[in-house]
Design goal:
It is built from 13 helices and 16 strands. The chain is α/β, with parallel strands linked by helices and 469 residues long.
């Protein structure tokens, strides 16, 4: 962690959709918690002035989370605005003028990656990169080569310690709760390894389509959009060894080791799908071969996990919106009738609510030694006062805490794993909206015992449930 706090936030892409839906609410939340007391300089080419920018911020808060009158008044006083083209040196001279007195600004690039190089180069030429940090939005590259080129561009003006590659998923409390649950509970360690775990599956399902973002999605697809970043982060939290210290570099060292232990993905361990009607979406090519669903199988070839398959799937227009992890245990020898014996499991639900559940076998009704599965559940819904993901990651970046950000080696290792299949001409299978992807998944990439499909919260009927306050 760097030993200074950023004394200004320069916000490129300040009139965009991400700013409107996520960043203004995050800034208000940071201010309410005392995490934002420095100027916020919005930069965009919209032909606006400061009053229009403040009005946009107010409208954003009305639509997304609500306006706190006192907090907004303070936020409004911190807002500045520079209107101009990112290729024009005059724009960056205007930013420099607004930064008068700031020694350590944080430059947040909420802009398309194709513009990163232009903006970083202009920041360096104008002197605004000196002593500064840069916060970069995903996607970080399109493949391994483009990620390496982006790193080269950033490193020309910023040290690695000053580069914060955002994966807002790491700002989510339940994602980090997986790490706490693993390492803060003595009962977890004895069984969290290849001796007891038979397989692990990670599912990120969305019950909606591309929502008007067809042009973006048709250049990206499911593997690049959520698997290579979000779900690999969850995979690392599940697979990492206990860090010997809790400083950011030590924690990130352990995560990178997980990716280094994974071989490049083979085409035989991947199924890609596309929901029916995708090619009719606005912005999508009529002959598009981009996936809206992917399921894959990898192994972490470490001492702890050698031989345990990890299955990952994600997709659009699936039956529910939910992110969940399920670890199945090996079957024990038992006096209970074999055909009635199901595998024990540990289930982490990451969203929409945070759940930790243990699946156990108990005696079924009647006198015979026949088992049935029940779940013991600890569940917790998000609270209104909890910090949102963007509030956490932006606050941490300005404080210089790199723990929740992807390091250069991590990003490049993640791309190394998926690069071969991104370049290969793999089959694309169609699936109906509301299905769990194409039927080929069950034949090609499926855990022993099949996938366990998450169900909507209001459908759950647990035998034993403990609500955690």
């Amino acid at each position: 962690m760097s030993n200074f706090h950023s004394d200004a936030l320069v916000f490129f892409g300040a009139t965009g959709d991400l700013a409107y839906k996520k960043i203004f609410p995050a800034l208000q939340g940071m201010l309410r918690r005392g995490r934002l007391e420095v100027p916020v300089i919005g930069v965009a080419k919209a032909g606006w002035d400061l009053e229009q920018f403040r009005a946009r911020a107010h409208d954003s808060l009305e639509k997304h989370g609500g306006v706190d009158a006192a907090a907004f008044e303070k936020l409004s006083g911190l807002l500045r605005y520079v209107d101009g083209d990112y290729t024009d040196p005059a724009t960056f001279q205007a930013i420099r003028k607004e930064l008068t007195g700031a020694q350590h600004p944080a430059h947040y690039l909420a802009i398309p990656p194709v513009l990163f190089g232009t903006v970083v180069e202009q920041l360096a030429k104008s002197g605004s990169a000196q002593g500064a940090r840069v916060i970069v939005e995903k996607p970080f590259g399109h493949d391994l080569a483009s990620a390496q080129e982006l790193n080269r561009i950033l490193h020309a003006s910023f040290p690695e310690s000053g580069i914060f590659r955002i994966d807002h998923y790491l700002g989510k409390r339940p994602v980090n709760n997986v790490v706490v649950f693993r390492f803060a509970n003595a009962f977890m360690e004895p069984f969290w390894n290849r001796n007891y775990i038979d397989s692990v599956q990670i599912t990120m399902a969305e019950d909606f389509g591309v929502q008007g973002r067809g042009a973006f999605y048709d250049q990206t697809g499911t593997i690049r959009d959520v698997i290579q970043n979000h779900l690999f982060q969850i995979l690392c939290n599940l697979g990492m060894e206990p860090p010997v210290r809790i400083d950011s570099e030590t924690v990130r060292d352990e995560k990178v080791k997980v990716l280094k232990a994974i071989r490049p993905l083979e085409v035989t361990n991947l199924v890609r799908g596309q929901f029916k009607g995708y090619r009719q979406e606005k912005g999508v090519a009529p002959d598009s071969k981009m996936e809206t669903f992917a399921a894959l199988r990898v192994e972490i070839e470490s001492w702890r996990w050698k031989g345990v398959p990890f299955y990952i799937r994600a997709g659009k227009n699936l039956p529910v919106t939910c992110t969940e992890v399920l670890a199945r245990f090996r079957k024990p020898p038992s006096v209970v009738r074999e055909d009635a014996l199901s595998r024990n499991h540990l289930r982490f639900r990451i969203s929409p609510e945070m759940t930790i559940a243990m699946g156990a076998t108990v005696m079924a009704p009647g006198e015979a030694l026949v088992g049935e599965t029940v779940e013991m559940v600890a569940s917790r819904h998000p609270r209104p006062e909890e910090m949102e993901a963007y509030e956490r990651v932006l606050g941490d970046a300005m404080a210089g805490d790199t723990t929740l950000f992807a390091r250069q080696d991590y990003v490049e290792e993640a791309w190394r794993i998926v690069d071969p299949v991104l370049k290969a001409d793999t089959p694309l299978y169609e699936y109906e909206k509301g299905a769990w992807g194409p039927s080929e998944v069950d034949k090609i990439v499926s855990p022993a015992g099949g996938w366990q499909n998450p169900i909507a919260t209001d459908q759950e009927d647990f035998r034993v449930a403990t609500q955690v306050a």
